Amino acid sequence: MNDETFENGDETKINYYHAHIYYGDDDAVREKAARLREKAWTKWPDQVRMGRFRDTAVGPHPLAMYQIEFDHELFAEIVPWLMYNRDDLTILLHPDAEDAFRDHAWYPFWMGEKLDLRLDFLRRGGRQA
Ligand code: ZN
After folding, report:
1. What is the CATH number of the domain that holds 45?
2. How far, in Å, CA of 105 to CA of 94, rounded?
3. Residue 20 sits in which domain range?
4. pLDDT in tens, 85-119
């Protein structure tokens, strides 16, 4: 996974969560991802902070994707919804707390295929991810 030793953290430091929905360079997969994005935005227009389509790999993310940012209050509702509505898309769910590297490398979970994140971006002090 990475060359650092896992350390437990403090979940009370979590500010919010990101769900990253990956679609890569396949137009059909991008269409599926776009439908999921529209459904989520329609369902929680005031509770999700919807990211734009990033059609090239950015930061630690190895494939094109967009992100959905949400707070604790929505977690118990949106996470099961993503589990049941992801349409076989790969999704990374990670907390945003004190350290971007740890949030992505140690504390995330995956729906679908687990991808290799480009963690070097985070070791260099990258914050926005
Ligand atoms: Zn993120």
Report:
1. 3.30.70.1240
2. 9
3. 14-116
4. 999 999 999 999 989 999 999 999 999 999 999 99
